[in-house]
Amino acid sequence: MRYIPLLVAITIVSSFATNAQKEITLQEARQKVLTAPEIKQAELNLKIQRLNRHLDYDFGMTEATYSNDKEKALPDNQKIAITQKDMDLLSIFAKRSLSHEMVELSSLQRDFVTTTMIKNISEAWIANYCRGQIYHIYEEINDSFKNILRAAQIRYKAEETSKLDLLATQNEGYRLKIEMQEALADYKQTEIDLNKWFEEGSKYQASLISSEQLISSLPPIPKDLGQSIILDIAQKGSSVEEAKWKVMKSGFFPKINMGYNKAIGNHTNGAYGFEIGISIPLPFNGTITEAKKAKIQKEHAKLEAQKVSRDTKSTYASLYTDYLKWQKTWQYYQENALPLAQEQHKGAIKAYEEGGIDYITFLQNIRDALKLEVEAWLTFESYLKCYYTLEYLITTNSKNEF
């Protein structure tokens, strides 16, 4: 019996403990990603827009003066005056309307970022889940193939098979190991893609729950796209540009000036006066050009909203067709092909070990079963990725329950 030195054994165990991955469900992953920096940044942008609403009120400049005509040397020549200049009162409504639209747009953008992050983490999770299933298939077949190699060597020594059959079996074992290593590399890459959405240093992997449990938790997807946060953002962008144009037009409104003055002295009898007037901005070429550009931008935003609506609905219809295709294909694999492939895989190994089939028949059965099982899980991955994209497109606000 061979013994592993204690230090080496401890090192190996420690290495496995350090690299151990924590399993995480899809629901947990979706909840965890809500603390991502991208969402926090969107929240801060929304707070900034809310603070900007306090800038809508422009009461101009306050000027206070005191005058004393010393040349006349009269006590009644002292005067104080307070003037409020360039009060932009007539444009307050337009500015408040723009601020309201900007806050709503920022709120939609925050919801869009949240929805996008949930879509990204869902796709990363299902990719890791399916690649894990594929890797475990290769692991199982590779473990079984070790017995096949021993059986092949026994047959060769008993002169029941040729050396060529033995070499072919050994080569098939090497090929399976290479493919298993490739499957492991794909699996590890999807783990990296999954953990990049979490805090630095996270080590999670998708929990290997049943595919039936995953599908049963999926809400139904509507055939047609009704409202969508993408459409809402495009429409709100159009509203913002229209509000900007109205603010630009309000720049031509008169500004209001008000003043109050009072004479100071023993013989003034408290004389005072009020002044009120307006300042009318002159429409120079520069301001007129800016107003025209704002109007064009408003029309451009309306056309952009129409384009986004058309493209998004077309994309949704195409994705929904793919979704139904992948759904039916997965149902075929799940109900028919996968059970047969697993039975074919196990049956081929047992028949070969018992001498019921030759090497060529065994190899063909193993390859066919392996190919079918891998294709099934790749189909399942495409099916759910398509679902998550449709789910992302039909999201309308941040009140999602995951």
UniProtKB/TrEMBL annotation:
Q: Which UniProt keyword terms apply here?
A: Cell outer membrane, Membrane, Transmembrane, Transmembrane beta strand
Q: What parts of the sequence cross the membrane?
A: none
Q: Where in the cell is it found?
A: Cell outer membrane
- Entry's InterPro entries? TolC-like
Organism's domain of life?
Bacteria
Q: What is this protein called?
A: TolC family protein
From which organism does this entry originate?
A: Falsiporphyromonas endometrii
